[in-house]
Write a structure and sequence with these properties.
single chain; alpha/beta; Rossmann fold; 10-stranded mixed β-sheet; 12 helices; 10 strands
Length: 341
């Protein structure tokens, strides 16, 4: 594994014509070369030495930036790193053009094997939740606990609001969509994404909205942006059709790691009703439901999600959370309903 620390303008080392990737205060980016892929890894130095490692995996169309708020709130609990999956964030496309769910999981496994950080506290959102489920199932030695925020696991009855995203997997749809939306500004696109992914889009600060627009402008300049989106969506849909030991729900049943499941009541992409099935499938699970959250609870309600993870960690380590720490909870381990307020 080769690792290169990226300066404050990291994208210049990959695509000189593309704008800067945002780095939050206290974070670092580095480029890691692995067989067949190069991953950008976002890290936040832990508050003290010796904290257990954590790895965060984003969803379709997202990036490691999606985890910055949660990473900040857990910097006294875990040693956090978040990856940009191949073709997303600041990671270039994979050498073989493979964006299947298995390929994304393989990239995460290769990084964990090469870095020697496992077993980690593994976090995944949406597509990253499906990827993390597969990693935990096939390589239990690499996963200490599993936290899934709206994991993209197969649904028999898909919500109508999720259909357009799934249609990206259909040949020709992406080309049609890009033609129909070629005059849309980055600001219009971001507003659409927020309406789809947030339970309460008004919670996004003006600064956060501005940063999102800048990131959208940067990513739209990438020549492989739509290809990565389309092929990853197709890879996820294809994974839904697999049977036997490769079926995602079958793999969920194989996960040994203690698991925290986080679902939003206003999620328009992953059905809220799936939380019950997930709680049954993962053998050692806890359920955290946030009625007002959408698809990215770790961005909308990072304090609540951080508290849920602290409770999981306290239970696993056999101790009570420190009530003096911000976001500390009671650690009941029972299904929890929280309005997120």
């Amino acid at each position: 594994m080769s690792s290169t620390e990226l300066p404050s303008v990291p994208a210049a080392h990959v695509l000189p014509q593309v704008a800067t990737v945002r780095v939050a205060e206290g974070e670092r980016l580095r480029s890691v070369g692995l067989p067949g892929v190069t991953l950008t890894v976002r890290s936040r130095p832990p508050r003290r030495e010796g904290l257990p490692p954590a790895l965060y995996v984003h969803g379709l169309g997202g990036s490691s930036l999606n985890w910055s708020a949660l990473m900040e709130r857990l910097d006294g609990v875990v040693d956090s790193e978040a990856v940009d999956l191949p073709g997303f964030g600041d990671s270039p496309p994979p050498d073989d053009g493979d964006y299947s769910l298995t390929a994304h999981a393989r990239a995460v496994i290769r990084y964990l094997d090469a870095s020697g950080r496992g077993p980690v506290h593994l976090f995944g959102n949406s597509l990253g939740g499906a990827v993390s489920t597969r990693v935990a199932a096939v390589r239990p030695d690499l996963v200490r606990t599993l936290t899934l925020v709206s994991p993209a696991l197969p649904e028999l009855r898909v919500q109508r609001t999720a259909v357009p995203t799934g249609l990206l997997a259909v040949p020709g749809v992406t080309a049609l969509f890009t033609r129909l939306t070629r005059k849309w500004t980055a600001e219009q696109r971001v507003r659409g994404v927020l309406q789809l992914c947030y339970g309460e889009p008004g919670r996004v600060t003006p600064e956060g909205f501005r940063d999102a627009v800048q990131e959208m402008e940067r990513r739209l300049q990438l020549p492989y942006f739509w290809d990565a989106m389309t092929r990853s969506a197709r890879g996820l849909v294809n994974a839904y059709t697999l049977g036997g030991q490769h079926a995602l729900w079958r793999q969920a049943e194989r996960v040994l790691a203690p698991t925290l499941l986080v679902y939003g009541g206003r999620d328009q992409l992953v059905g809220y009703r799936m939380c019950s099935r997930a709680a049954r499938a993962f053998r050692d699970s806890r359920l955290l439901t946030l009625p007002d959250a959408g698809h990215v609870a770790m961005m909308e309600y990072p304090d609540v999600v951080a508290r849920g993870f602290r409770e999981l960690l306290a239970e696993v380590e056999g101790r009570e959370p420190d009530p003096g720490r911000p976001g500390a909870g009671t650690g009941s381990g029972a299904p929890t309903e929280n309005s997120g307020s």
